[in-house]
Amino acid sequence: MLPEGNQSIIPTFILLGFSEYPTLQVPLFLVFLSIYMVTTVGNLGMIIIIKINPKFHTVMYFFLSHLSFVDFCYSTVVTPKLLENLIVEDRTISFSDCIMQFCFACLFGVTETFMLAAMAYDCFVAVCNPLLYTTTMSQKLCTLLVAGSYSWGIVCSMTLTYFLLALSYCESSIINNFICDHSVIVSVSCSDPYISQMLCFIIAVFNEVSSLMIILMSYILIFITVMKMPSASGHRKTFSTCASHLTAITIFHGTILFLYCVPNPKTSWLTIKVASVFYTVVIPMLNPLIYSLRNKAVKDTFRRLVVAKLNNSHSQS
């Protein structure tokens, strides 16, 4: 609810997006539409493949199916509005829609952060304690790790959203971005956003540091274990097992650190927008590609699905 003085005013925001580049609107629309289609097919396809193939009913693929679901939802929260703003003149977004977009983007962003940390722990147990893997990574623990990731995402999202709603806003404000991010929402508030900003900073630092600590400790111990292996083939096999996950977390956390942890007053709005596009639009597309392109079993299952679908289409015609 808006503060008492502003109850009669329903704020609207104008998302500038990439409007300063009018000649690029159509090319950008086609690029982002293609990315969104690949994201949707890739992530939903990964979930279906994991569901129908008993070979993938393992802990790693249990986490991966949830990661694909989170990526699909995250992209769906952001990309449709971005596409709409590239082809329409009216770039306004209502206050409620803006807050909802932030709320869900925050939820899925935080969930993905800790889902990747859980996957790092799974990789650590698989490499460092292979004999105890089945006992350690029980169905109960895996469910708790996934449920915990979603729950903490909801807590962070609800908390930050509540404090955003406690601020007052002018009737119309311009947001120089394509997404309703926390920083741009507080920048257009008419009241003092200090508490909301500090809370966001504390939550963001805690999430990033805690998840990175889990990931770094897991991979340091994995590296030490691999170095103790006598055979070079053992080294290659182990690194190959963790390579997809390591690639995914490097891209994900590398982008976050660039966006939020390397403040530079000279950084242009275009650079911020491009980094935001990579974080919110491109990464959800990359994850299924990273995990599928390195996995022969996934590619074979996908190929069989496509062939079966084509055969069904031919038989019906």
Residues in β-strands, percent: under 5%
Characterize the overall form.
Answer: globular
Largest sheet: 3 strands, mixed
Total number of beta strands: 3
**Neighbour order of strands in the largest sheet:** 2-1-3
Secondary-structure class: mainly alpha
The amount of helix comes to: over 70%
What is the count of helical runs?
A: 10
Distance between the termini: 56 Å
Low-confidence stretches: 1-7
Sequence of secondary-structure elements: EHHEHHHEHHHHH
Rg calculated over all Cα atoms: 22 Å
Mean pLDDT: 85
Report on this structure.
The protein has 317 residues and is mainly alpha-helical. The model is unreliable at 1-7 (pLDDT under 50). The protein is globular. It is 75% helix and 3% strand. Strands 2-1-3 form a 3-stranded mixed beta sheet. It is a multi-pass membrane protein.
Strands, helices and their partners?
Blueprint: E1 12-15, H1 25-52, H2 59-87, E2 92-94, H3 95-128, H4 133-136, H5 139-165, E3 172-175, H6 182-187, H7 194-227, H8 232-260, H9 269-293, H10 296-316
Parallel strand pairs: 1-3
Antiparallel strand pairs: 1-2
Helix pairs in contact: 1-2, 1-9, 1-10, 2-3, 2-9, 3-5, 3-7, 3-8, 5-7, 7-8, 8-9
Subcellular location: Membrane
GO molecular function, one term: G protein-coupled receptor activity
Pfam family, one: 7tm_4
